Amino acid sequence: xxxxxxxxxxxxxxxxxxxxxxxxxxxxxxxxxxxxxxxxxxxxxxxxxxxxxxxxxxxxxxxxxxxxxxxxxxxxxxxxxxxxxxxxxxxxxxxxxxxxxxxxxxxxxxxxxxxxxxxxxxxxxxxxxxxxxxxxxxxxxxxxxxxxxxxxxxxxxxxxxxxxxxxxxxxxxxxxxx
Length: 178
Hints:
Layout: H1 10-20, H2 26-38, H3 43-59, H4 68-71, H5 84-87, H6 97-105, E1 110-121, E2 125-130, E3 135-138, E4 151-156, E5 162-166, E6 172-176
Antiparallel strand pairs: 1-2, 1-4, 2-3, 3-6, 4-5, 5-6
């Protein structure tokens, strides 16, 4: 029988068959249902069939059948809290609004670390990589060259700025780049 000559009650018949059908695995049953809707020639009946499947899927409980991979899987390891100094200044890096709200709530007022390496830039500015992996660039001239092992203190300033003190130098404006 060609698809175009199917009876007009195809969608209702399909729904009745789905309602009375024995419980089959969800993916196999869904694939069969979609295939039978796709086989309907009339566009209106085909759309009604798809709508009925969508409504049935919305009302069905979303319970995944257990399989061997998930049944034997080990429980997830507890999340390790992030080091507070690792997130210091992170609000200037690109991130989502959700991450921004979470980070702003947990922000510390200052951070202490040591210089791992530094690169001299023009006008006595420096790119300073800290022991925790962060890289800060001074926006003002530093009074002396930062050397590995020097103490670094980065503090919040006004209007979202930061000040960096390397060793015993005076505070200089800085920005975090990584």
